[in-house]
Write a structure and sequence with these properties.
about 375 residues, mainly alpha, 2 domains, 13 helices, elongated
């Protein structure tokens, strides 16, 4: 029996490995597929390349406008420290853009290797249909142009800085740097939803490992994936919150539409990015736990009825039935404690610490400003 069970598990693992390559997570985005499969770029290489291009573009813009150095009339690029901080969003966004297409495959690989999930042809086919939908990519492209337009409008209305010396340089930064980065950001946002739908299709049945060392029933790779998605969003939220504070101090909050939009987007995406991919696993884990509890409950009912029928019968049989009932009660108590979320307490604490960072950024900025004025 043990050998047969081992053979079944081996066959399941092999079937999972055969079906996994069918999931093409880049099917709807030809640019991501080009970077990953044609250029063989990693998220780190993509991030560094985008940062170098963004910095060179900014230097060219400032040089053409004669605003590399500060003057009483405008802020020069070389002293715009807020720019050098917020520009880190560009490599982060592009790095995550590539990562969001590769990470789900790694998650499924780990779960199939540990025999936590069982891939089926029908589920893989449904997931493939979702992954081939090009609407999210087209929406990302359209919305990126909207973001570029908002940035251009806000830059034209704001005080003189190094990138708004004329409409040409402002337009170049808006649609050659900001809009592409916005495309990557929107792609990440929509991909979070798409990946969550794929997880829901694939994670219909899970084999819970209650005593797994990851304290998440063996599904911690999914929880780690969800946590990593919040890092980028939290950094972007921190920059948006800091920008809101800056424009408030200089009295330009009324026209800071770009930053208002970024803060609103953060409030939506922060919880969504973490919990959306986890709901599928939560449902599957809950169903697996409920099936186990129902099985225990049915057995408890049968054994209780058997014990009740032995009241007037053999005392030994009654004793045996009562002992079994007591063991079933202990088993039920143990099953109730089984995890139904694919993360442990440490992952949850990290999530709340991460999403609270933008608030901490604003509080720290206000505190520094207050102490500066006090001194």
């Amino acid at each position: 029996m043990t050998e047969e069970l081992a053979m079944i598990k081996k066959n399941v693992v092999e079937e999972n490995k055969n079906l996994l390559p069918e999931l093409d997570f880049c099917a709807s985005d030809k640019f991501a597929k080009f970077l990953i499969f044609k250029l063989n770029w990693t998220p780190l290489r993509t991030a560094l390349t985008s940062y170098v291009l963004a910095m060179l573009s900014s230097l060219i813009i400032a040089a053409l406008g004669g605003r590399l150095f500060p003057s009483p009339d405008y802020t020069g690029l070389l002293v715009d420290y807020f720019y050098f901080l917020t520009e880190l969003l560009v490599p982060l966004v592009w790095g995550y853009y590539l990562w969001i297409y590769k990470a789900p495959y790694d998650v499924f690989s780990k779960l199939t290797q540990s025999n936590i999930i069982r891939l089926k042809h029908a589920d893989a086919a449904d997931a493939t249909t979702i992954l081939r939908n090009v609407l999210p990519t087209r929406a990302s492209l359209g919305l990126s142009l909207v973001v570029g337009g908002l940035y251009f409008y806000q830059g034209a209305k704001s005080s003189p800085v190094w990138f708004n010396s004329d409409s040409l340089t402002l337009g170049f930064r808006s649609f050659a740097i900001i809009a592409p980065a916005a495309f990557a950001a929107w792609s990440i946002s929509f991909r979070l939803i798409v990946n969550a739908q794929v997880f829901k299709r694939i994670l219909k049945e899970v084999d819970l490992h209650p005593l797994h060392p990851d304290n998440a029933g063996g599904l911690r790779p999914l929880g780690q994936y969800a946590l990593r998605t919040t890092y980028l969003i939290a950094f972007g939220g921190s920059m948006a919150a800091l920008a809101e504070y800056v424009v408030y101090v200089v009295g330009e909050s009324a026209t800071a539409y770009f930053f208002h939009f970024a803060v609103l987007l953060y409030l939506i995406l922060a919880p969504l990015s973490f919990f959306a991919p986890l709901w599928a696993a939560h449902d599957a884990m809950s169903r697996a736990k409920d099936r186990l509890l129902e099985h225990i409950a049915r057995q408890f009912k049968d054994d209780f009825s058997a014990a009740f029928n032995e009241i007037k019968g053999s005392s030994k049989s009654l004793k045996d039935n009562i002992e079994k009932i007591e063991q079933l009660q202990k088993l039920h108590h143990l099953a109730v404690s089984f995890p139904v979320w694919p993360f442990d307490s440490l992952t949850l604490r990290r999530f709340f610490l991460t999403i609270s960072s933008p608030i901490a950024t604003v509080v720290l900025s206000v505190l520094i400003d207050y102490l500066t004025r006090l001194i």
